[in-house]
Design goal:
Number of helices: 9
Organism: Sediminispirochaeta smaragdinae (strain DSM 11293 / JCM 15392 / SEBR 4228) (Spirochaeta smaragdinae)
Shape: globular
CATH topology of the largest domain: Rossmann fold
GO molecular function: phosphorelay response regulator activity; transcription cis-regulatory region binding
Protein name: Two component transcriptional regulator, winged helix family
Structural class: alpha/beta
GO biological process, one term: regulation of DNA-templated transcription
Keywords: DNA-binding, Phosphoprotein, Transcription, Transcription regulation, Two-component regulatory system
Radius of gyration: 18 Å
Distance between the termini: 62 Å
CATH superfamily of the largest domain: Response regulator
């Protein structure tokens, strides 16, 4: 087996009840320089994530016991694990299953059967975006403001009046992009390409679902003085409000 170092020692947790899938992914992750953890149930996946804090989790939707969507919700509601990117695997191609996964906090999804090339492109994109958002801003202005909302791009932190707003990595990326371009329409294709390394044709309604989650979280946090608007036929923008 040829081993490369593209994984740079990053740890990835694979959670899937199909043993052949876990073995296939584990073997290929290892060959790319990743350290691999394996789990076969939702409960085992939660325990591994909380104990080892992997850099990324590949999580199947259909699991015995706690299903993947509920596992994702639990991970994203736990301060110890909420910033770990979650890539969901689904054997179902219906849009509703993808939407449920994204509503549960997943950062990306891929439908079985999948090509290993596509999977690893998604893995690399998620890890690259986390590195960018958590470590590439030193020495640059890192505070953005609109209304009562504050974005700290260096600490990967959104807040309202000093109170943290719990966002998934994907939600933070979208909100950060909107606030950086406040008052301007940001198109869906630009979000797909710049934030998720995806062709818009492959992204479905993922950004729309993320935006719905962001709006709810900002509202629940009591954010005032700004509003996210849908620009029909174009995308989204965030604007100051009196």
């Amino acid at each position: 087996m040829v081993v490369d170092d593209s994984g740079s020692g990053k740890t990835i947790l694979v959670v899937d009840d199909e043993e052949h899938v876990v073995k296939l992914l584990s073997m290929n992750l290892t060959s790319r320089g990743y350290d691999c953890l394996c789990a076969y149930t939702g409960e085992e996946g939660l325990e591994q994530a909380r104990s080892h804090h992997p850099d990324l989790i590949i999580l199947d939707v259909m699991l015995p016991g706690i299903d993947g969507i509920e596992v994702c919700r639990l991970l994203k509601s736990d301060p110890r694990t909420q910033l770990i990117p979650v890539l969901m695997l689904s054997a179902k191609s219906e849009g509703i299953d993808k939407i449920h996964g994204l509503e549960g906090g997943a950062d990306d999804y891929i439908t079985k059967p999948f090509s290993l090339r596509e999977l690893f492109l998604r893995v690399e994109a998620s890890l690259r975006q986390i590195a960018l958002l958590t470590g590439a801003w030193s020495g640059r202005p890192h505070m953005l403001f609109i209304g009562s909302l504050s974005i700290d791009t260096e600490r990967y932190f959104a807040s309202n009046g000093g109170e943290k707003i719990d966002l998934t990595p994907a939600e933070f990326k979208i909100l950060n992009m909107l606030v950086k371009h406040q008052g301007e329409a940001v198109s869906r294709p630009l979000m797909y390409r710049e934030l998720f390394d995806k062709d818009p044709a492959d992204a479905g309604r993922s950004v729309d679902v993320h935006l719905r989650n962001i709006r709810k979280k900002l509202n629940d946090a009591g954010v005032t003085g700004c509003r996210i608007e849908t620009v029909h036929g174009s995308g989204y923008r965030i604007t100051p409000q009196p």
